[in-house]
Amino acid sequence: xxxxxxxxxxxxxxxxxxxxxxxxxxxxxxxxxxxxxxxxxxxxxxxxxxxxxxxxxxxxxxxxxxxxxxxxxxxxxxxxxxxxxxxxxxxxxxxxxxxxxxxxxxxxxxxxxxxxxxxxxxxxxxxxxxxxxxxxxxxxxxxxxxxxxxxxxxxxxxxxxxxxxxxxxxxxxxxxxxxxxxxxxxxxxxxxxxxxxxxxxxxxxxxxxxxxxxxxxxxxxxxxxxxxxxxxxxxxxxxxxxxxxxxxxxxxxxxxxxxxxxxxxxxxxxxxxxxxxxxxxxxxxxxxxxxxxxxxxxxxxxxxxxxxxxxxxxxxxxxxxxxxxxxxxxxxxxxxxxxxxxxxxxxxxxxxxxxxxxxxxxxxxxxxxxxxxxxxxxxxxxxxxxxxxxxxxxxxxxxxxxxxxxxxxxxxxxxxxxxxxxxxxxxxxxxxxxxxxxxxxxxxxxxxxxxxx
Length: 453
What we know:
Layout: H1 16-35, E1 39-40, E2 46-48, H2 49-52, H3 57-62, E3 66-68, H4 79-84, H5 87-94, E4 95-99, H6 104-113, E5 122-131, E6 143-152, H7 158-173, E7 178-184, H8 185-194, H9 201-208, H10 211-225, H11 230-240, H12 246-257, H13 261-277, E8 285-288, E9 302-308, E10 317-322, E11 336-342, H14 343-352, E12 366-368, H15 373-388, E13 393-395, H16 402-411, E14 416-419, H17 422-427, E15 430-434, E16 440-443, H18 445-452
Parallel strand pairs: 1-5, 7-8, 12-13, 12-14
Antiparallel strand pairs: 2-4, 3-4, 5-6, 6-11, 7-9, 9-10, 10-11, 14-15, 15-16
């Protein structure tokens, strides 16, 4: 007996109905991106490992999918390393490429590689799949789509404000109620300055980034294990658990940081962003979240995270500012900021909340029933005319039993069915059935196209 085929864990097939719904999400996101002047690009699914490694921190590097070199991939491995077989040592010999982990690092590589063809500030969007060797669970997949929007070549805080507007507009169109959380990596560095642990900054942010998942006590335990003193750990905990309005938090931080230059700069930047947002009408809640860290090493300024209200799903959008990501590829001092929308999580939220429009389940708007060769010849010109009008129309390919053809229309949620037999052909008319109401009547072609258009 043949083994039943399967797909890798953490990946999914998408049915026609699912694809129509996913395209509804993509089209909505693209429409807002274009509204703000962003242009599309695409990059390869695989990048050189030298491009990817070291950009996401130790945790991220572990989740990179590596691609074995073609041919005899063990040929270049020294005998000693082959015998010891330590994975870390073997990788540099057997793998030169990897699947992209996100779209931001490939974007930075693209900017450097095409710097002479780009007009700065460069505003781009990119909707493509990424891969992470993570443990699959609800809302977390090994292959998933990201919808990125970035502007690079400008340090203006208006870019952060614009991204908040884009996030708000997209989720308003998708009818998802959201909370947009903002913080600044400079504020987090200010905390490290305040407690005298700047050398442990990366370990501190990695631990803080897990707060939602493991809770404050486990975070404190991780901080202690990374070598941060008990006193400093308690100070971090005190700051992270401070409650109050955005204004109260900013005032608290201003007093706390005093002469800590980086922290004070972070407070000034985030305060300016909130000051801009005050004059705008937003449907999303926007708040300052001091626990927001986003553990990716390349963030240097504002950090953004979005969660859907009233659901257990994790973040559905996130990003931040990176001041010198292009510097590692030979183009220093080019600041950028962007966010990424998680299409798969957005899909799951919309499915859970029943937010997809009814018409996203139908791709065909009109179905012509097939009664035989003569009827086919009568109907086909009108099928073509409806298609020329932009109305999704099909004709059943076989003269099958009427019940089978009507079941086909029902299963595909086709709203209109056209029947044309001998009587209709003689009178140059059609019988049009509304599948939602059950109403059925005789119409001319002109009447038919008015009703279905």
